[in-house]
Every structure is written in C-alpha cells, then in structure tokens.
From TrEMBL:
EC number: 2.7.11.1
Enzymatic class: transferase
Subcellular location per the Swiss-Prot or TrEMBL entry: Cell membrane
UniProt keyword Kinase, yes or no: yes
Name of protein: non-specific serine/threonine protein kinase
GO molecular function ontology, one term from the record: protein serine/threonine kinase activity
Cross-referenced SUPFAM superfamilies: Protein kinase-like (PK-like)
Gene3D superfamilies, alphabetized: Phosphorylase Kinase, domain 1, Transferase(Phosphotransferase) domain 1
Protein's UniProt keywords contain Nucleotide-binding: yes
Single GO cellular component term: plasma membrane
Superkingdom, natural source: Eukaryota
Length: 370
C-alpha cells in the first residue's frame, strides 16, 4: 500500500542532520525512478536544522518537526503582477475551469523572470482559487508544498504562487495543446493512434514517477482533463490531482464518477493501485473514444468499464469496440495487447493489478509493435 501525499518526504531526518544519499528507489514495484537523490545538512532561518532532499533541479526542506515548508525554488508573484499577466482575468484569457477555480492564460514579462527562464517573457497558466472553495485552500497549500519540489518531465511544472489577502493563485507552465479530454471528447478532428499511445506513455511515466519515489505519492482523481499536453504532445500530469491529498492519510475525496476504483467506492481509501485502475479506465476511453461515465447511454452501459470490460479478453471483440475515428494504422495485435493491459489495470481486486512501471513497459512495447 502506498502512502498518501501528506506523508511524502516525512522520512525522519537523521539525528546528526546528515544523510547518506538515496539515489534509486527500492519500492516493491521495482521502479527505477530516482526522485530524491542527495541530502545535505542546512541551517535555515532561526538556526534550526533542516534536511534538504534535493532532486536534480529542486529541493524540499523538512523541519525537525516534520513540517514541510514551501520550496525556495518557487517564485512568489504579487496579485497585481498576475492581474496584469492575465489582462485582469478577462474571460477571453480563460483556459478552462476545474472544481476549485478558473485557469487563465497569462504573460509574464521578462523583467520579472530569472535569466534561466529566458526570452522576453513567457506564457503561463494561472489558476485562481475561487473564493467559495474552502476545500481548495488546503488543495492550494498542498500544491505549493509538493509540486514545488516534485520535478519530472511528465508533471506540469509549478512556477510560483501568489497569496495575498483572500487571493490564492498558482502559476504553472503553459501547456499549449490543452488536455487529453479536449482531444478525445471535444475536438472534432482525427486523433491518430500514435498520438494516443504517446500521450498514455507520458502519463504512465508521470504516475510511475509518483508511485516510485522513495515515499510513494498517490494521485487523486486521475482523468483525461488532468493529462495536459505540451507543443510536442508530450503528456504531463496536472498539479490538480496532487492538490487534494491533504493531511488525511489516504482518505481523500475523489469527485469524478467513472474513474474511481471499486475499493475506493467501498472504503473511501485511496491506494496506489487505485491510480492503476483509473489509468485503465482512461486507457479504455482512449481505445473506444467513449466517456468513462455517461448516464445518457442505455441501461447497463453508463459505466464504460462495467459495460465493455468483458470484451477486452476477446481478440475479436476488442477490435469491435475500438474508436472508429482513430486515424493512422494500428494492427490487431496492438488492439489485443491494449485490451489485455486495460483488462489487468481494471481488475476489481487491487492485488491483481500491475504496478504503473509494469504498465509503462507494456505500453512502450505496444508502441514498438507494428
Ligand atoms: N498548465 C496549463 N496549461 C494549459 N491549460 C491548462 C493548464 N492547467 C489547466 N488548464 C486548462 O484548464 C482546465 C481546468 O484545469 P483544472 O486543473 O482547474 O481542472 P480539472 O482538471 O477539471 O481538475 P479539478 O476537477 O481537480 O479541479 C484544464 O482542463 C485545461 O483545459
């Protein structure tokens, strides 16, 4: 069983304050994904001892009491700066809206950027927490604490934040190709197979990284709107899913119907393998082009997994359920293999589901299959 994000990095600092480094993880899923790679002893403010568990490009500071502090690598923006960046949060700048607020496209001027951030400025995505969102306040804090220190090519990068009066905003790297949800369900254009598999491989890498870090992180609410795409359709998992894993040890609210694993529905507990189940549901959406849950479908078909899972073990039936709009060639072997991995990800008993690293290996093999 994995730990929820609230216990991430709560490994006890050594009595001496000096740690030997742990560069690879020994987690039982066998994932070879180093996250925390070096530790050093530091004195920060007030002379108290802090442990820095540094990843390649970011660090996390943990106080002796175990409290995680905001990453010094994040930029602190003023509300005025972000108001200017988003042209006063005008509706035309809006990129989308989630459960906790609206997301705006913004432009940060060069003079406010560190030299390494380059150029005359940069486009960013600014998530403004809605004032009604009490739950969102904790979510906001979790993102600042955790995404400020978790760095991986398949996680959307948090650049900074703003906390002024009642305003809470997060500034993310901008993902110009939108979300997987947009490409699967909203954009009425061809969505080739090679892109679909590429995106799912990127998302699997992101999840495998979270699960494979020294203290595994469980993602909340994994779904296609959380899979964002850069200009090369490289998938990055959004910070939103990290947000809600507050201080409740695995009891976390999952709002989206259709993706939640049976054990979560039964107990309210999130497990690492619950993410694998949700990933399997998304795989089924990618194969079929149908939504995980649609109450408008006929009786017995509202839940995609309950409806179509029985088809996944038959070569012939898998071919029948594949999205007819898929452009670009894919062989029947590919469809069969996709059926197989989706079937095992969505096993009702979590013990029978693979780890994300194994899912990733299978998808990479499928990508190579002609
Ligand atoms: N970094 C980003 N770059 C580009 N677009 C983004 C970015 N972050 C979010 N968006 C857009 O804003 C939409 C809403 O994002 P948000 O994370 O708030 O909501 P969500 O995915 O529905 O999650 P939740 O339900 O947990 O709030 C996304 O679906 C996407 O279209």
């Amino acid at each position: 069983m994995g730990l929820c994000i609230s216990s991430l990095f709560f490994s006890s600092p050594s009595k001496t304050g000096l740690h030997s480094h742990a560069s690879t993880n020994n987690h039982s899923d066998g994932a070879d994904l180093s996250s925390t790679t070096a530790t050093t002893n530091k004195n920060v403010g007030g002379g108290s001892q802090f442990l820095e568990a540094a990843s390649e490009s970011s660090g996390v500071f943990i106080s002796d009491s175990g409290q995680i502090l905001e990453s010094p690598h994040l930029r602190v923006f003023s509300f005025l700066e972000l108001t200017t960046a988003t042209k006063n949060f005008r509706p035309e700048s809006m990129l989308g809206e989630g459960g906790f607020g609206k997301v705006y496209r913004g432009w940060i001027q060069a003079e406010t950027l560190a030299p390494s951030e380059g150029g005359s400025g940069v486009i960013v995505a600014v998530k403004r927490l809605s004032s009604e969102s009490f739950q969102g306040f904790d979510a906001w804090q979790s993102v600042v604490n955790f995404l400020g220190v978790l760095t991986h090519p398949n996680l959307v990068k948090l650049l900074g934040y703003c906390r002024e009066d009642k305003e809470r905003l997060l500034v993310y790297e901008f993902m110009p190709k939108g979300s997987l949800e947009y490409h699967l369900f909203q954009r009425n254009e061809s969505f080739p197979w090679d892109l679909r598999i590429k995106i799912m491989i990127g998302a699997a890498r992101g999840l495998a990284f979270l699960h494979g870090s020294q203290r595994p992180v469980i993602y909340r609410d994994f779904k296609p709107s959380q899979i964002l795409l850069d200009s090369n359709y490289e998938a990055k998992i959004s910070g939103s899913g990290l947000a809600m894993l507050g201080p409740s040890q695995g009891n976390s609210h999952v709002s989206t119907f259709g993706y939640a694993a049976p054990e979560y529905m039964a107990t309210g507990h999130l497990y690492i393998k619950g993410n694998v189940y949700s990933f399997g549901v998304v795989l089924l959406e990618v194969m079929t082009g149908l939504r995980a849950y649609d109450p408008k479908r006929p009786n017995g078909q509202a839940s995609l997994v309950h409806w179509l899972r029985p088809n996944l073990s038959s070569k012939h039936k898998v071919k029948q359920i594949m999205d007819k709009r898929i452009k670009g060639p894919y062989s029947s072997k590919v469809a069969t293999e996709m059926g197989r991995i989706t079937l095992s990800c969505t096993e009702p008993d979590l013990k029978n589901r693979p780890h994300m690293k194994e899912v990733l290996d299978v998808l990479e093999n499928i990508q190579r299959t002609k």
